[in-house]
Design goal:
The chain is of the alpha+beta class and about 140 residues long. The protein has one domain (about 5-135): CBS-domain (Roll). The protein has helices at about 20-30, 50-60, 85-95, 115-125, 130-135, and strands at about 10, 15, 35-40, 45-50, 100-105, 110-115. A three-stranded antiparallel beta sheet has the order 1-6-5. It is globular.
Length: about 140
């Protein structure tokens, strides 16, 4: 039986409204010990904001912490898949588009997130990336 994205993804992804300040997204990342938050416009997924986006698109560009998340998130040509997508198809899509995080949706509603760490854990638990991804966070 082929492995699906639903079997590997991180469920219940953290979301933030596109109009929220980047400060809020950063605080959610800190509280949840994650590096990304899905960006919503109402009930519709419009992008992903990462800790790197905050550093490169906000701090390095002298945008303040009150800047709306929607102004710095990755969203143009947002790539998503459904929970039923095969893991192999998702990996190939991530490889083709050079993306590290893939939102999983049902309709426009996000239900999960697939990261390269999730894939490493599922495919090769003994790999260095899998061990790092599965380890407890640094305090």
């Amino acid at each position: 039986m082929e492995t699906t994205v639903a079997q590997v993804m991180t469920r219940d992804p953290v979301t933030v409204d596109a109009r929220a300040p980047i400060r809020e997204a950063a605080r959610q990342m800190q509280a949840e010990d994650i590096g990304d938050v899905l960006v919503m416009d109402g009930d519709r997924l419009i992008g992903v904001v990462t800790d790197r986006d905050i550093a490169i698109r906000a701090v390095a560009e002298d945008k303040g912490p009150s800047t709306p998340v929607g102004q710095i998130c990755s969203g143009q040509d947002l790539t998503t898949v459904t929970p039923e997508t095969s893991l192999d198809q998702a990996v190939e899509l991530m490889r083709e588009r050079a993306i590290r995080r893939l939102p999983i949706v049902e309709g426009d509603r996000p239900v999960g997130l697939l990261s390269i760490g999730d894939i490493a854990i599922a495919c090769d638990e003994a790999s260095a990336l899998a061990e790092i991804s599965a380890s407890e966070p640094n305090q």
